[in-house]
Amino acid sequence: MDAAEVKLWRRAERQRLLALRVAVAPAQRRQWGQAIEGRLRPLLAEQPGIVLGVYWPFQAEFDPRPLIDWLIARGSAVGLPAVVDKKGPLEYRAWRPGEPLIDGVWNIPVPEKRDLVIPHAVLAPVVGFDRQCYRLGYGGGYFDRTLAALSPRPRAIGVGFELSRIETIYPQPFDMPMDVVVTEAETRRR
């Protein structure tokens, strides 16, 4: 497939995978989410005292918010991503539960205070993923640009549901693989 065909295929695959995910009953997604959290805790415990880039859940994604209190209690900090340039990388802003949030791009909440942090590891929601740990996201390229821009590169942890696994995303030169992909069924390391 050439780049134009890949782009069209990805758009259709994104729509298909999002429809599958949204169609799952909320109770089932919560159950899968608890299994994912159970896999993430020991993975994150390998790096105590880190700054973890998390995200605010959107379109029936795995909800990482229950991890935040646990991380903070263990001496870690979290940052939420904010879009500041539609063609640039995300910036991560320090955040703790209870601190003010404002609507960002797609009305996804971002910290009001612009206290920037550089994450040691980031959680990245996957729309789809393949066996090589490449992530199919929403198509904006924000996460790939962010991983490419951060130095040192943070540990990239893709999170999503097993129903999002596909044979390949047809990786392109700009695609950044995840170091690990965690689903309710398993933890895959690249």
Description:
The longest helix has 21 residues, at 3-23. The chain has 190 residues and is α/β, with parallel strands linked by helices. The protein is built from four helices and twelve strands; from the N terminus they run ααβαββββββββαβββ. The mean pLDDT is 93. The chain has helices at 3-23, 26-45, 65-73, 142-149, and strands spanning 51-53, 77-82, 91-95, 101-103, 109-111, 116-117, 121-125, 128-129, 135-136, 155-159, 180-182, 187-189. It has an eight-stranded mixed beta sheet with strand order 6-3-2-1-7-10-11-12, sandwiched between helices. Strands 4-5 form a two-stranded antiparallel ribbon. 31% of the residues lie in helices and 22% in strands. It has a single domain (3-189), classed as 3-Layer(aba) Sandwich (Rossmann fold), CATH 3.40.50. The chain is globular and about 45 Å long. Strand 11 (180-182) and strand 12 form a beta hairpin.
